[in-house]
Every structure is written in structure tokens, then in C-alpha cells.
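Hey L., structure's done. Input below.
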Amino acid sequence: MDELSIRASNYDVIGITETWGSCDISDAELSLSGFQMFRVDRATRGGGVVLYVSEKYEAVLAQDIDTGGFRDCVWCRLCLQEIKLIIGVCYRSTASSVENDEALLSMFSSVASLADAGSCTVIMGDFNLPSIDFKRSSVEGSADSFAGRVFDCLLDNFWYQHVTDFTRFRENQTPSCLDWIITDDPNVLEELTYLEPIGKSDHVYFVAFMFCQSPSYL
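Output:
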């Protein structure tokens, strides 16, 4: 947490996956000075997500989003300068069940249905779908695979996935792009930067500038 606290001072919104949070870990242990914290722990070992929002902004849980039972996600509404945001952090495990995968697609449909002309949707997370190549706009495998259906879902909702370079590196394994930032406006994010992992993570972390009246960083 010390390293995260040092880096956090530069940002307005921070999303983290695989927190491994549990009822044995208090909010005080995960809190960041100057930030509101929204956490969701998994009932079993592993997983978990947390969303930090600067105290400069009023943020509330987006309880109108139907998660469909998807296991690891948290959603908030906030106003970032002049932009009304629906922002979520999601984690899909490599061991995700068919039911959980279907819940993810259902949840995306719920989020899309709530969007309007005066809002912007931002979805951050680790989706563990390396077969989707966003640089080439292609999916390895059959079109009706889960990866293919997720890719089609993004296209159907006119969503844009901004991360195209590798985000996970592990010795003796092929690098992959697992971590995404999805928005419903391709022009809302700028200056996406890939930085060294925090702590012992094998995933890079990235910083994105959100285009609004004055600079805000995710």
C-alpha cells in the first residue's frame, strides 16, 4: 500500500483488480488518504476489486446496474469536471464459469442501457481474454466463442477498448493484453501510458488522461 499511496497523489480515479480482499482485511488497511473507497471482496479466496475516487468529487454506488451475479465488480456514478461518469472495475478470472461469463455479458447490456447523451461510461479491469487482438480487431478462434461474443458486445454497443499493447509479462510465458479500459466515447481518453508494475504484480499499470474541462487522470 505504501507504493500505491505514493503514486496515488497524481490521480483522480484508481481501479485495482485481484485485491484478494476479505472480511479479515479492514477498510483502514486498504484506504488511501484523500480518496473515497468502494470495494467488493469475493466470498472465497482470491479475486476482489476496489475503486478509489478522489474526495474532490462526489461519488455514489451505481445500484441501478444489474450485475447479473457477476462475481468481481464495483460500479459508481460521479461527475468529473463537466462529465457525468458511470465507472466500473471488473475482474474476470481465468477460471470463470459459464454462468459467470454469461453474467458479464448481461451486466454489459445493463450498463449500455443506462447510458445517455449527457454521460460517459468507463470500464476498467482484467478480463483474461488474450485471444482478442484489439490492434487487428480480430479474435482467435470461432466467432461464437466467449471471446468472440465479448468482442461483438463491444462493437454492438459502440464501445471502444483503448489498451492495445501487452499488459502482462511473466517469465517463460507469452506476453498478453489482459487489462482493458473500455469507454463509449473513443475521444474521451488521451495519453495512455504504460508503467512498471506495482509491487510483485506481473501486470503493468497504466495512466490515462480523461479529456474534460481541466486535466483529470485515471
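Helices lie at 2-8, 27-30, 98-114, 146-156. The chain has one domain: 2-217.

-- N.
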